[in-house]
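[scheduler] slot 2 assigned
[scheduler] job type: sequence-to-structure, two independent chains
[scheduler] chain ordering preserved from manifest
[runner] begin chain α
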Amino acid sequence: MSKIKEECGVFGIIDDKPINAVGHTVNALLALQHRGQESAGIVTFFGDNVFTKKDLGMVNDVFDQKYIDSFPNSYVTVGHVRYSTNGTRDIESAQPITVTHKEASFALAHNGALTNAEELRKRITMDGGIFYTTTDSEVINDLIIKQMRQTKDFEQAVFNCMDILEGAYSIVIATGNHLYALRDKNGFRPLCMGKLGTATVFASESCAFDAIGAEFIRDIKPGELVKVDQKGNVTVRQKDVSDRKRGLCVFEFVYFARPDSVIEGISVHEARMKMGEYLYQQQPIEADMVCGVPDSGISAAYGYAKASGIPYGSAFIKNRYVGRSFILPTQIKREKAVSVKLNPLRSAVKGKRIILIDDSIVRGTTSAKIIRSLREAGAKEIHFCISSPPFKFPCYFGTDVDSRENLIANKMDIEGIRKTIGADSLVFLSYENVMKIKFGQDVSFCGGCFDGNYPIDITEPK
C-alpha cells in the first residue's frame, strides 16, 4: 500500500417525471471517481422493473456514451463507485447490490465499513442466510430483509437496522418509488442532499452536485434517515445520538475528498490551505520554492507558500492518463507507476532548496521514490512536510489503514523516517493543528488512525 486507499462514492436521484437519470448519475459518479476506481454501477427502477449495469473499471469504461444515449428516461436511480476496503475485488462485489425478494425489491449503495459485520454475518448464517460476497453491504441488505419480515414496512425496517449496525455507513437506497439516505450515528463518512430542478439528489460529496448543476441543500445528519418519494415529499427520522461521539473522518479533508467539495460547512480546499499554514507555523524553513505532490498536496502547498512568502512552484508534471498506483498488485509495479505518473521538472528544481508538501506517509516507499527523483533532477535540498500527523493505528471505518506493521510511523520515530525516505528534514502536522480545521463548525473529527482513540469501542482482531 503506497497510498491510503479510499472508500467508495454513492449517488442517488429521484423525480416525479421521467428524466435522464442515468446520464446525471454517470456525470455524478465521474465527479466521485476519486473515491473508488475498481468498479462502477448504476441501478435504475421503472416501477417494478429493475435494470442493473455494473462492472470492474472506471466510470467511463463501464458506461460509454452509446449506453447513456440509448437508455430511456427514468424516475429513480442509484449509483456507486467502489474501492474494496472490505470484501474482494470482483464483479459480484460491485455495487449497488440489488435485492429482489417477496418482502422488498431495492438497490443499495454503501460507503464505509461496519465494525460488527462479522458478528452479524455469523448470526444471519446461523438463521439460514446465504452470502454471495464478502462485503458489508450484503450484510446490510440481509438485515433489512430480516427486519421487513417483522415490520412489513420498508422505512421502519431500514430505521430499525440503524440500531443494529455499528461502524461507518453512509447509504443510499432506491426502490421503485422512493429514495432513502441514511448515515451512521457517529457520522464517520460524508453524505449530502441537493436539488436538481424538481428532482432530489444524494451524494457522498457536494462536487457531484456541481457536476450535474444541482443545488446543495444540506448534509445528512449523523443518525438520520431521509426518505423522498417521487413527488418530492421528504420524511425525516432521527435516531437519538446524544450518547454518541461525533466522528467525521478527518482524512476526508487531508486526502479523500475533492478540494472543490464542502463537507459539514467546511471547504476542503480552505482546510488544506490552513494545514499548510499550520505546517509553516510549526517549523519555518528557509527555501527557494514550495511544491505540492499532485494532487492532494497542492492546496496545502499553496497555504504554506502564502504563510511563508516563499514562491509556489511546480516540481512535477503529472500524467493524468495513469490510474492510481495503489490499485496495482505488487509494490514493484506501484513504484514503477509512480515514475510514469510523476516526472520531475528538471529546469524548475535544479539547484533549488525545495519544501515539498504531501498529505501522508504510509509505508514510506512512495515518498522515498519521489524524493529520490527530485535529487536526480538536481534539487539541492528537499524538506518534506506532511499535512497530517503520523499514521500509527489502523482504521476500522472504511479507510484501508489495515495493520500497524504496514505503517512506517508505527516502527520508526520521525528521524528514522526522515533517514529512510532521504529527506533533509521532515515535519508532520501536529494532531492539535489538524483538529483546528473545522473553522468553528459544529463538528468533531475521528483521528483514531493518529492517536488510537476512536469514537466507538473497538476490539482489535487477534
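[runner] end chain α
[runner] begin chain β
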Amino acid sequence: MKTAWVGLALAVALAVQTTVAPLLAGIGVTVDLVLVVVVLVAISSGPVGGLWAGTVGGLVQDALSGGVIGVGGLTKTLLGYAVGALAVQFDVSRPWYQALVVFLASLLHAACFVGLYGLLSDDRTVTSYGGVLTQAAANTVVAAGVAMALSAAPEVLTRRRLRRRRLTRRFGG
C-alpha cells in the first residue's frame, strides 16, 4: 500500500513538474518537486525507500526532460539513500527539521547534478549560485508546506471520524 502512495506522489510531482513548474520558471522560481518527494519519502521510509523513490523518480524525470538520461536518476538515488540513512540516525520528524534537510539536500543535489552532467556532456552548463539558492529555498517552502499538511492530516481525519459518529448517534442511521 505504501508503495502505491509513493508511486502516486511521484506521478503527481512529475505531472506538476512538467506542467506548472515551467510557468514558475518564467518568473525566476524553479522547483524540483521530484526531489522534494524523494527526500520526504527517504525521511519517512529510510534508505531503501529513498533509494527506490530516487531511482524511479529521477529516471522518469530524466526521460521527460530530454537531457542525459541517468544523471538525475543517479543523483536522486544517492541523495535518497543518504537522506534515508541520515533520517534513521537522527530525529527529523518535525516539519522544520525536514525543511532543513530538504534545503541541504537541494544544495547537494545541485552540486552532484552539475558535476556529473559536466563529466558526461560536452555542453558547458553554467549554473549560478543565486539560481541554486533560489531553487533550494523554493524546494524548502514546498516541502515545509507538504510536511505540515502531512503531520496535520491524521488529526483532521480523526476529528472528521468523531464528528460523523456524533452525527450518526444524534440523528440515527
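[runner] end chain β
[qc] chain β: The chain has one domain: 2-171.
[scheduler] slot 2 released
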